[in-house]
Amino acid sequence: MKSIQEIVTQTEFSDEDIIRLLSVTDKNEVEILRQAAFDRATEHLGNQVYYRGLIEFSNICTLDCRYCGIRKSNHDVPRYELEKDHIVSAAVWAAENGYGSICLQAGERRDPKFVDFVIDVLETIHEKTVSETLPNGLGITLSLGEQTLEVYEAWAKAAGNPVGLRYLLRFETSNPDLFDHLHCAPGKHEKGLERRYAALANLRKAGYQVGSGVMIGLPGQTLEDLCKDIRTFQKLDLDMIGMGPYITSAGADMLGEGMMEKKALMRLSLNMIAVTRLVIPDVNMAAATALHALEEDGREQGIRHGCNVVMPNITPRIVRKNYQLYANKPFIEQEPSDSNHYLQNCIEKSGRTVGLNVLGSSVHWLKRVKKI
Ligand code: SAM
C-alpha cells in the first residue's frame, strides 16, 4: 500500500487515493497532507490571498432548502432588503480599503423587480469604483442562485468588468438522492441537480468565472460522495471552489437529523480542502466563514490547507444578524474594519500576504481564456 507521503506527491489521483487522503486523522499524516496542499497552492498561485468583501444584501428567499436558516418557511427570521445606497456605500468602502473585489449574496428571487434592482446596483457600483488603482472597477462576484441565461447576461453586462466577473452557485452535493433529500420539502421539487449543472453551464456561456462547491459532513454523506464531488469539480472545469462544513441551524428543516461532531467535521472539511487543492491546483478556493463558526482560527486553517480567498463580511452590521444560515455565524457584531484587521492577521499568521487592490482572478480561468 502507498504511503500518504507517496500519494501527495502525485499529480494524478485514483478514487482510492482521494478517499484515503480524505480519511486521514493521524497527526503526522494530516501534517503531510496539509503541507503538500499549501505548497501546491504556492507553486501554482503564489503567496497571496485575495479578499472578496461579502455583502449579504437580502435574506428574502423564495425557496425552502431544508438545511438553510433563511429558507422561506422559517418565519422566525425578520426579513430585510438593503437599500441601494447602503449596498453601494459598502462596495465603495471595500474599494477604498484595498479590496479588489466584492461578492453580492442574497436569498433566491427571480422576479423582474429583483433582477432590475441588481442591474441598477451593479451599474452604480461599477461607475463609482473605476479608479486609477482599479481601472476596471471592483471585481464582482454574484451569488444569487439559479437564473435564466438572459438574466445572467444582463447582470454580466451591468457589472461592467468582464475580467473580474464571477458567480458562485454551489451544487451542494453530487449525490442525486442526497440532493433531493436536502431540497425537497414535502410536496416541493424546487431544485434539481441537473438544473443546477445546466445553470453552471449558462454562467460559463455568459462569460463568468464559474464557482461552485458543496457542503461537507451532510447527514448521510459518505467519503465516496465527497470523492465524486471532487470528480464533479473536475468535470465542470470550475474556476473557483467554495465549500464548507454543514452546520445545523435552528430555523432549518433538517435540525432533527443532527450534524457531525465538531472536531471530526473540522478535520473532514480541511481534508476535503487540501485534497481538492492537490487534485485541482490552479483554482481559486475560498476559506468559508462556516470554518470559523466551528473553530476560532477556522479560516486561517483553511488557508494553511490550500485556500487562497477569504470573504470578509462587510454587510452593514444592522442587518447582519438576520443572515444566519447556520448556528454560531461569526462577525455578527464587528464593524468591517475590525474583521478586516482580524483577517489580515490570520492570513499573515498562516504564512501568506493579502493581495490588495488586485482582482485576484482564478489562474485556472486566466489559462482557459489565454490571459496567461
Ligand atoms: N440563494 C443562493 C444560492 O443558493 O446559491 C445564495 C445564498 S445560499 C444561502 C449560499 C450557500 O449557503 C448555499 O449554497 C449553502 O451551501 C450555504 N448554506 C446554507 N445553509 C447552510 C448550513 N446550514 N450550513 C452550511 N452552509 C449552508
- Total helical segments: 15
Beta-strand residue fraction: 5-15%
Give the uncertain stretches in residue-range form. none
What is the string of helix and strand elements? HHHEHEHEHEHHEEHEHEHHEHHEH
What molecules are bound to this protein? S-adenosylmethionine
How much helix, percentage-wise, in residues? 40-55%
Kindly report the average pLDDT value: 94
The CATH homologous superfamily is named Aldolase class I
CATH-defined architecture: Alpha-Beta Barrel
- Describe the largest sheet: 10 strands, parallel
CATH class: Alpha Beta
What is the C-alpha radius of gyration, as a whole number of Å?
19 Å
Shape: globular
Number of domain units: 1
C-alpha termini separation? 39 Å
What's this entry about, in short?
Helix content is 44%, strand content 13%. It has helices at residues 4-8, 15-22, 27-45, 84-96, 112-129, 149-159, 176-183, 193-205, 223-236, 262-279, 289-294, 298-304, 317-320, 336-349, 363-368, and strands spanning 48-58, 101-106, 139-143, 165-168, 209-212, 215-216, 240-245, 284-287, 309-310, 353-355.
